[in-house]
Each structure stands twice: as structure tokens, then as C-alpha cells.
Amino acid sequence: MLDIKFIRENPEAVKKGAAAKGVSIDIVKLLKLDTVKRELQASAEKTRALQKELSAAVPKATPEEKKKLLADSSKLKEEFLALDERLKLIDGELVAELMRIPNLPAPDVKIAPGESGNEVALISGKRPQFDFKPKDALTLGEALDIIDVDRASKVSGSRFGYLKGAGAILEFAIVRYALDILMKEGFVPVIPPVMVGEKAMKAMGYLDRSADEVYHFAADNLYLVGTSEQSVGPMHMDEVFEAAELPKRYVAFSTCFRREAGSYGKDTRGILRVHQFDKLEMVSFVLPEHDDAEHKLLSSLEQKMMKGLGLHFHVLNIGSGDLGDPAARKYDIEAWIPSEDKFRETHSTSTTTDWQARRLNIRFKRSAAGKTEHGFVHMLNGTAFAIGRTIVAILENYQQADGSVKIPEALIPYCGFDRIEKK
RNA sequence: GGAAGCGUGGCCGAGUGGCCGAUGGCGCACGCUUGGAAAGCGUGUAAACCGCAAGGUUUCAGAGGUUCGAAUCCUCUCGCUUCCGCCA
Is any atom of nucleic acid chain B found less than 7 Å from the CB of residue A150? Predict the structure, then answer.
């Protein structure tokens, strides 16, 4: 949610910002609602104040005065109720309009429609050279008996998989590798709930334009998270941080669930795009002035962890048209996938500035020179590892001519083996 | 699933119809003290909204209701705790 005062003062900037994301908003209607609301509020409050004044005089009044006071007060109360009813109606409309407005792109984000503004900012490593035709992850995984999508489809349908044996161990190794790096940076490991209530999911901004992506249990009105950000962000809902407590950094491990509605026919093979996968996600709560630095930190940590695995990747600065509602700026990492001869997304880090924090009502306070300042925190998130896709990248990039797969150096201590081969 | 209790400010906790936006403590800020710190002492300290301001309104889990007037009484909802049952 944007600050209504900011919208009032910068209507053109808001309109432009939303348009840059491909969202059209009726700013005239919104400002009109805002004006009417304030007028109604002023007269309702005036009536109410007068009524309260009369009420307060009742205990001290003489019997005759009392009679008149009670009658006048009752009348004012009716007037107030009528005004208040209209006020609530208008305010409801106003809030609905406000919630529809996406976060604005940060000033340094390229304005361009769709994905056309995405730019490669950095390339790390080199394409691995094979003196044989590299196989895809599924072929490798099935041959090594660590991935089974056939049986998964029997049990759960399409876009599911079993990860077995050395594959399962590899997952835990990646988790522990990332935790060791991030805990040194002050991130607190968290295993959050993966089912969250409507209030939390809505506040995070995932029930507006991306509602189709989310699994919903109607009987309990609970939603399955598509990323643990949706569970870790609301953790501090309606809380106020002392400035000294910030930054607050978490790295959450959770299973993530996505309906993948509208992606029929896309990436149907293997485990690159599935309904259920595990992911480590970084979430930061920071003071507004630390937002940019934190975003760079999250991006650099993602890169550090990828370099540590020796994977070839590039970093994309995402253009305005490819930003989701909550994000003001986004950097993606795409890892090299030899079988597809292209880069595929494995990481994404966004700052949501104060957009999510406003909806979640997460604030900070700080005192200096005898004055107390309140404000909304800034919330950022970033992938530490989307584990399924990381395993896909490792299998493909570290595959050998004989069909075995070497384990990246950094993961060997965590795996307890240095190669996955056919038994 | 059955029963009971509870939900107050950044936090803890008092408060059972008008004197309550709310005693007190912790925390925090400022000052005194100190070589410096800690401790101690003193002062201050809820937020949101409307308004140029004076000021006003709202908020004691949430939504309704009773009343001229509600943190306080009533109803419903949600959450938490305890006991019982059930399951592990």
C-alpha cells in the first residue's frame, strides 16, 4: 500500500509508476474519494464532539437542564450516525482503491513493458565444456535413481517428484551449506508455518493479481505458501521495532506450493517447474535508509553462495514491466542449464520498500534529542536457494561422460560423498 | 469435541458506567552525577486520522448492541491459556 498523502501530493508519479508496471489505475476517482471522505470526516467529527460535550454536562445539570441535554444529545447522535454511515461507505471504497495500487518502481529501475527491460548486469563463471552431449537433469536423475517423477504422477499427478537417496542427501547438504554462510551474517534460521491465514496472505500482496497461484483450503480458510516470505513477513504483523533491533534478518526453510495456473505446457519435463519444492528464503526488516544497502547485500550473498557451488550464472536487473505488485526493485539470478543451452531463474531478490510493511502494519520507533520518530520498516526478501532448481543445475553442470555426477567441492563435507553414481 | 478463564500502550500490569487515553513498573530519550561507564537521581515518553493552527475524532483483541455517556454491561467472532476427552 502507498501512503495516501504521497498519492495526494504526487498523483502523476503514482500514475506513471503503476503504468510502468502495466497496471492502470483511476487516480482521479481515488483523489475524489479522498476529498469526499475528508469532508465527511470533518462534519461527522464536529457533530460527535458537540454530542460528547452535552453528555459530559449531564451529571452536573439540574433536573430541567438534564431533560433538555438528553434530548439534544440524542438528536445529535442520530445526525452523527447518519454521517458516519456514509463515511464508512466512502472509506471502504477508498481503501479498496488504495490496495489495488502496486508499489512504484525504484528510481534506478528501467522503465519498459513486460520482460523487455530486463538487463544482464553481471556474468559469473564460464559455460562448462563437455566432450559429450550433456543430458538433462531428469535423464540423469532417473538413471542415478535419485529422481522419480513417474511414480509421483501416479500418486499426485503432474508436476510432482520424488527426490531419493543421494538426491535427498544433496538437498540437506545445500540447506546446511547455505545456513552456515548466512548464520555468519546474522540471519536467524526459521522453519515457519506453510499454511497461513487470509489476513496475512492478503497483506503480503499475493491475493490480488496472483491469487490464481495460491492453494487455498476452503474448509479452514488457510492458504499454502508459495514462498516462506509469505509466512515470515507477517511474523511481525502489528509490531513496533525499536530502531536498535533492526536490521532483523531471517533465513527460512520451507516447502513452497504453487498452482502453476496458466503455465500449461511450459517446462512440463522434470522437476524445474513443480507444484511443490523446498526453498531457503532470506527476509530482512530494515530502517528505510538502509534499504538500498540491504538489497545489495541480499544480492551479493546470493552470488556468493552460487559462486561457492561453482555454478555459471548471470544476474539480471529486472525492468519495471516484470516486477510484481509488492516489489520496487528486483534482481534475479539465472543459472546455466546445459541441456537447454540457456540460463534459467534460480534466485530472485526484491525490496518491497514500505509497501508490504504498511499493509502488515510493521513499524519502528526511535528516539533522538528527546523526540520520538515513528515509521514503517522496509521489507526485503531474496532466495538463498530454490533447492530443486539448484539440484537441477548441479546435476547438469557437474555431469560426467559415464553418467555420474560430481559433487561441488563446497558440498562434499555436507554430503559425505563426492560423486553420485549408478549403483 | 466438552468446560472454564483470559485478551489494556514498545513490553509487563492496574483499572467493573461519567473524575480513564488510562495508576505503576520495565524499556527508550534527554539531563545530573562520573576520569569513562554501570548504578543512582530527575524530567519526558501511545499511535492513527482531520486541520495552517487552536483544536478535534478514533483506538483498551475484532464486529455488533444497551446507554445521554462503555476499557468497564450484553451478544457474536477470533486468538491464547488451563482442565477433560480423543489421538500420537
Answer: no
A46 CB closer than 7 A to any strand B atom: yes
Give the residue numbers of A annotated as catalytic, written as ranges: 258, 273, 345, 348, 389
Averaged pLDDT in 10-residue chunks for chain A of 423 residues: 92 95 93 93 92 86 84 89 89 88 96 96 96 96 96 93 96 97 95 89 82 85 91 90 90 94 83 95 95 97 98 97 95 97 96 93 83 89 97 97 97 97 88
Residue A110 belongs to a domain: no
What ipTM was reported for this prediction? Answer: 0.87
**What pTM value is reported for the model?**
0.93
Write phi, then psi, for A177 (nearest 5 degrees).
Answer: -60, -45
Q: H/E element holding A54?
A: helix A27-57
Q: Tell me, yes or no, whether A32 and A161 share the same domain.
A: no
| Tally of structural domains, chain A | 2
Nucleotide B50: closest residue by CA–C1': A42
**What phi and psi values does residue A326 have, to the nearest 5 degrees?**
-75, -20
**Same domain (yes/no): A129, A80:** no
Are the C-beta atoms of residues A399 and A422 closer than 8 Å to each other?
Answer: no
The C1' atom of B10 and the CA atom of A240 lie apart, in whole Å, by 6
Same domain, A57 and A163: no
Determine if strand B comes within 7 Å of the CB of A55: yes
3 state DSSP class of A297: helix
